[in-house]
Amino acid sequence: MKVLPYEQDMRLAFNNDSIRLSFQKLKEAIQSTDNQEVYTAIGELLLWVVTTDEWHIENGLADYKERKGKDEDGKILYGMRHAFNCLKHNMSFFQIHHKKGGLEYPITSPLETKEITILWMPAGNILNGKHESQKKNYIKYVEGREVVETFKSAITFLNKEFAKVTFN
Predict the structure, then answer these.
(1) Cα 152 to chain center, whole Å?
(2) Is the pLDDT of residue 8 over 70?
(3) Of the candidates 75, 94, 43, the residue with the CA atom closest to the CA atom of residue 140
(4) Where are the alpha helices (DSSP H) in 60-141?
């Protein structure tokens, strides 16, 4: 067991609570169908997920990176890091997702509303950054996948790591 200084322990606990709250905001934003709310919620959740990943790299167990690289849920964090960096640094970039489902036009009878899903957008030439490997990770691990499901996977991995640090 790794004994953590109080501040590090509290920071990790606050990060985990922030992830939980931000994930709920994302699900609510998707239901509202407001693209700005969805963009904001994705950005906020990316902040907490990537920051928590950084916490584990800097303060967690020594073999964290190795476990992340072997775990299918953990690998998603590699793609999310690129999305987060694009949100921070690429000023021509203003959308990270695209929507499928909901009410679609033309409206036909009987009225059929498909479930709304939010997908990570294709990287194309927009999601460029300083590190080509990050873009490759975005394409490999998150591009075109459902946003909520990829966040669930990444959060599942981070929760397992939280338990290893705090309860072992």
Answers:
(1) 8
(2) yes
(3) 75
(4) 64-70, 72-89, 132-141
Q: What pLDDT is recorded for position 5?
A: 82
The domain of 26 spans: 6-167
Residues 68-78: pLDDT tens digits?
Answer: 999 999 999 99
Q: Taking a C-beta distance cutoff of 8 angstroms, is the pair 103, 113 a contact?
A: yes
SS3 96: coil
Q: Which residue has the tokens 């606990």?
A: 13
Residue 34 included in any domain? yes
For residues 145 and 120, the answer to whether their CB atoms sit within 8 Å is yes
Between helix 72-89 and helix 35-59 the angle, nearest 10°, is 120
Cβ proximity of 50 and 31 under 8 Å: no
Whether residue 1 lies inside any domain: the answer is: no
* Continuous H helices in the chain: 6-32, 35-59, 64-70, 72-89, 132-141, 147-167
- Number of domains within the chain: 1
Does some domain include residue 50?
A: yes
Q: What is the pLDDT of residues 141-166, one digit of tens each?
A: 999 999 999 999 999 999 999 999 87
